Amino acid sequence: MIAASEIKEGDVLLEIEDIHMYFGKVAALAGVSLKIRNGEIHSVIGPNGAGKTVMMNCINGLYRPQQGNIYYKGQQINHLKPYARAALGISRTFQKVEVFGGMTVLDNIRLGRHIHLKSGIASGSLYAGKTASEEIEHRKFIEEEIIDRLEIEHIRHKPVGMLPYGLQKRVELGRALALEPELLILDEPLAGLNLEEVEDMARFILDVNEEERWKVTCLLVEHDMGVVMDLSHRIFVLNFGYMIVDGTPEEVQNNPEVIKAYLGEEDLYATRK
Q1: Integer angstrom CA distances of residue 193 from 38, 185, 188
Q2: pLDDT digits (tens, 9 = 90+) for 123-145
Q3: What mean pLDDT is predicted for residues 4-20?
Q4: 23: domain range?
Q5: Domain endpoint, select from 148, 180, 212
Q6: What is residue 272's predicted lDDT score, i.e. its pLDDT?
């Protein structure tokens, strides 16, 4: 496996090679191949049922494809469980918000730090020495780098289940960022948000991708074509399990197969305005 320090901007971080995923006789993914390069926001678009979420589930280990390979920093990860892939630096949010409603915002985000905890059971039970200093360090990171960044300091002690949907989406993003990922999978992060919330979420995604402190590579699944075209370095188009094209926003906008299968003339015009 390639060390994180050896991955340069533009190098292939994640590669999907000819993966097939079947549910009975239905081909959710049929020979899909994709390369995600370090430092990019690479979006995946396609109509409902195209296989977008299935592909995300294959990447983070919820599904195991029947054929093909997935490589992360040069290492084949087909056999790895989701928690092992998280330990490698792959984090995600979900199409439907997956938070612990009875827990506070702060506790939900803290869960994303568990991979970085190094103290054992004995020292943890005493809460002294190395364990205490480690806790302070993680708490500082969460407060300064995530809570403040996502502008949720005013709700950090509130149960997540009592919050509006848009704020729950921020909490889920905060938990994903707490892992300090190299690859962040975002499955429809803008779905169900109002215009102001969409603008805020798009800004957060752009910040963690561009800022030197983070420089997170993002794999974005989204239906908002305006945001996709504005944020993405490259766009991958799926249509019922098959790849149509993988290219720059301009190439995708001008591809006749994409227009026919997904964008349509009216939507294409709207993205160009």
Answers
A1: 28, 18, 10
A2: 555 555 566 666 677 777 888 88
A3: 86
A4: 10-89+181-273
A5: 180
A6: 46
